[in-house]
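hey can u check if this looks right to u? its 163 residues, i copy pasted from the old doc so theres a chance i mangled smth
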Amino acid sequence: MDEKIVKYIINNPLRLAFGIFLIWIFSGIIIWFCFESEKRGIFGDMFGAVNSLFSGFALAGIIYTILLQREELSLQREELRLTRDEMKRSADAQENADKSFKEQVELMYQSNVIAGKTSLLNTHLAKYEILKKENSSSIHRNFETQRIEKLMQEIQELTSKQT
């Protein structure tokens, strides 16, 4: 059957039922006019076994449909379980990525602090060299020496934290 017709029948079950009803009525009219009244009963009795056969087929169809639905539900449950597992793995990976990102940000921050302090240290070293060339007072040089030592100690502490 054409797919459009099948979709039309599935989407319009009342029309299908009405069509079957019309066929039933039409067959009754044909039997009424084609057979005499005595022979109509005999003719109808011939279809008793066919009615039983079609009822059996209908029951078998219903059982088959239930089995198909059961199988489909078990497949759907399995798919849901797999989806849950995948979502859990995805959430775990996201948490790990978040932790790694936070660690990376912290390391970048410490690296920037070290770079800033190193730049400041270089500035004080240059200033110390200028004071040394100009033969400035020892107080200024001692002050710069203390700043340099303090910065070197801070940089060393920060680098030891990173490793």
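Residues 47-162 form one domain.
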